[in-house]
Design goal:
By secondary structure, the protein is mainly beta. Helix content is 5%, strand content 42%. The protein has one helix and eleven strands, in the order βββαββββββββ. The strands form two sheets. An eight-stranded mixed sheet has the order 6-7-8-9-4-3-10-11. A three-stranded antiparallel sheet has the order 1-2-5, with no helix packed on it. Strand 7 (69-76) and strand 8 (82-87) form a beta hairpin.
Length: 137
């Protein structure tokens, strides 16, 4: 099964041939700013699952002080959509913005997320499904 995540303008994409090994939401301020929303949806795959990367990308690299890791975000050079990222504490994984799989249906759609990170920063109006793992901080 192939899954392709695309940027908003469609010129950049990443294609993977596996299910995510981790899929959740994060409520930290960093993810809120990255998405312009109340949380970020992140699907993490083994790096070996990447079969193609297309389009002109730019990279923003920084040290995430609160999480104590280095991060490199790759975003579309045309529309600015953050498409994927790598994190120094997860060297064998690649994170892909869950919303970039918006057109995926059937077997290509992502499975439901299973966890919430920085849950102590979750907006009061947002509820989570029963059974999700919840991590604070």
């Amino acid at each position: 099964m192939l899954r392709t995540a695309r940027c908003a303008c469609g010129q950049a994409s990443i294609t993977l041939n596996a299910d995510p090994v981790m899929h959740g939401v994060c409520h930290c301020g960093n993810c809120q700013r990255r998405t312009g929303s109340a949380f970020g949806i992140s699907a993490y795959f083994d790096l070996a699952a990447v079969v193609a990367r297309e389009g002109e990308m730019r990279t923003w690299a920084f040290h995430h002080a609160a999480q104590q890791h280095d991060q490199a975000r790759h975003f579309c050079a045309r529309c600015g959509t953050t498409l994927w990222w790598t994190i120094s504490t997860l060297p064998d994984r690649i994170g892909v913005a869950g919303g970039c799989f918006a057109d995926a249906t059937g077997d290509q759609a992502l499975p439901d997320p299973t966890y919430s990170v920085a849950d102590d920063r979750r907006r009061g109006w947002l509820t989570l499904p029963a059974g999700w793992k919840v991590f604070t901080g």
